[in-house]
Write a structure and sequence with these properties.
Order of helices and strands: EHHEHEHEHEHEEEHHHHEEHEEHH
InterPro entries: Aminotrans_V_dom, PyrdxlP-dep_Trfase, PyrdxlP-dep_Trfase_major, PyrdxlP-dep_Trfase_small, SP_NH2Trfase/AEP_transaminase
Structural class: alpha/beta
Pfam families: Aminotran_5 (PF00266)
Distance between the termini: 46 Å
CATH class of the largest domain: Alpha Beta
Helix content: 25-40%
Strand order of the largest sheet: 2-8-7-6-5-3-4
Organism: Paralimibaculum aggregatum
Radius of gyration: 23 Å
Number of domains: 2
CATH superfamily of the largest domain: Type I PLP-dependent aspartate aminotransferase-like (Major domain)
Protein name: Aminotransferase class V-fold PLP-dependent enzyme
Keywords: Aminotransferase, Pyridoxal phosphate, Transferase
CATH architecture of the largest domain: 3-Layer(aba) Sandwich
Number of strands: 12
Strand content: 5-15%
Number of helices: 13
Length: about 425
């Protein structure tokens, strides 16, 4: 059967004709589902925790909770370094990292693998740094060999910092951070390695100290399952040493004032983000209950199911992966190129007619891709609902498809279901 002739109902002669909706009717009458790569789905438990009256911000329970959160953050990043919470999104965390470690005129090397490391570099340029971009091969991640070659040419160590993302949310590539550290160490280069984990933190493995990362940044609205508004920065002792000499320090972002010793509210350079801290406390409890390594494994299974679906859908003139190397496809987001399929119409039909919001194509992918977010508080019903709705829209559009992505995803998920552990006691209906 040709790809464009694929029809999973073709062999079912026992089915009556499909009902037709009257003019003005829609299937979009239930709870909408947002499957974008952040903000991710916020658990009811987190939302409930945030619904609380304002406390005393100067002493007592709020201060004690805040100090516990700051003490637990390094554990989640697997570091002995300092952790900071900023009232900001991820872009604010970028700026906190830059202003606390660099000076005007410092050279920064950006490892491009999509959109976001370049955006971080643009911030550095606006702050007065000299920025150089080392581009990744098309549709692939950062090339550690190319980085090593560039650093060998920097005999005078003019490069003070290297900026890279673990996952680029636009391209959906995952970069090999340990391999990047090995490239830096191979030439003995002293530049700070700064890693953006905004799309990867609490979604896939990250070990700051073991991987030789000097500065890590993240945000609250993806794997940490809290609404946008908190930025996080972790700093190694090497980064703290650079901070003491940094010329870009500002009163708001300054680490020294935030490391304690004075009034607690200076941890936030003013009033703490009270409601978000309550939500973060609940999210940390959920992460501890599931176990961080179990969370990484769950994300790997979900990502495999999404990739199985996209591989099944792929057809000439239709959908295909943006990232060509299977090993470089992330476990948090998948960017799908739409070929001859109208990406704007696909997303509009999904959202307006079926209640599913998909991620837009960003930058170079605008109007020719969509993104599936599979991060944070997600389970098989949510994921299969997303994939099933996409498949239904593709059918409605007459898009070419190689096969059923939903069937492929369900098969992929089945391998992770521990059927032998399940008991049916007490499950009989009345």
């Amino acid at each position: 059967m040709a790809a464009h002739d694929f029809d999973p109902l073709a062999a079912r002669s026992d089915l009556p004709a499909a009902p037709i909706l009257p003019e003005g009717a829609t299937l979009n009458a239930g709870r909408p589902l947002t499957s974008i790569p952040g903000p991710s789905v916020i658990p009811e438990r987190v939302l409930a925790a945030m619904h609380a009256p304002m406390p005393n911000i100067y002493e007592g329970a709020l201060v004690e909770m805040s100090e516990r959160l700051l003490a637990e953050l390094p554990q989640l990043a697997f570091t002995d370094g300092e952790a900071f919470i900023a009232i900001a999104n991820g872009h604010g965390a970028w700026e906190m990292a830059l202003t606390n470690t660099l000076s005007r005129g410092d050279r920064v090397l950006v490892l491009e693998s999509g959109r976001f490391a370049v955006g971080w570099g643009n911030q550095a340029a606006m702050l007065g740094c000299e920025v150089e971009v080392l581009a990744a091969p098309a549709r692939r991640g950062v090339d550690p060999a190319a980085l090593e070659e560039r650093l060998r040419a920097d005999g005078g160590h003019a490069i003070k910092a290297i900026l890279v993302v673990q996952i680029d949310t636009a391209s959906s590539v995952v970069n090999d951070i340990p391999a990047i550290r090995r490239a830096i160490d191979a030439v003995g280069h002293p530049a700070l390695l700064m890693v953006d984990c905004i799309a990867s933190f609490a979604c896939m493995e990250f070990r700051m100290d073991a991987w030789g990362v000097d500065v890590t940044v993240s945000g609250s609205q993806k794997g940490l399952m809290v609404p946008p508004g908190l930025g996080f920065v972790w700093a190694s002792q090497k980064a703290i040493a650079a901070h003491r000499e940094a010329g870009l320090r500002t009163a708001y972002w300054d680490w020294t004032a935030r490391m304690g010793g004075g009034a607690h509210y200076m941890r936030y350079c003013g009033t703490p983000p009270v409601t978000h801290l309550y939500g973060l406390r609940a999210a940390f409890e959920m992460i501890a209950e599931e176990g961080l390594e179990n969370i990484w494994a769950r994300h790997a299974v979900m990502a495999h199911a999404v990739r199985s679906a996209v591989a099944a859908w792929s057809a000439p003139g239709g959908l295909e992966f943006h990232i060509e190397d299977p090993a470089a496809r992330s476990n948090a987001v998948t960017t799908v190129l739409t070929g001859g399929v109208d990406a704007i119409r696909l997303r509009a039909l999904a959202e307006q007619e079926a209640g599913l919001t998909l991620g837009v194509g960003l930058g170079d992918f605008q109007d020719r891709a969509f993104r599936i977010g599979h991060m944070g508080h997600m389970n098989p019903p949510q994921l299969l609902g997303t994939l099933g709705t996409i498949e239904a829209v593709l059918h409605a559009m007459g898009a070419p498809m190689g096969g059923s992505g939903v069937a492929a995803a369900a098969a992929a998920l089945s391998g992770a279901l521990h059927a032998g552990r399940v008991t049916t006691a007490g499950m009989r209906g009345g």
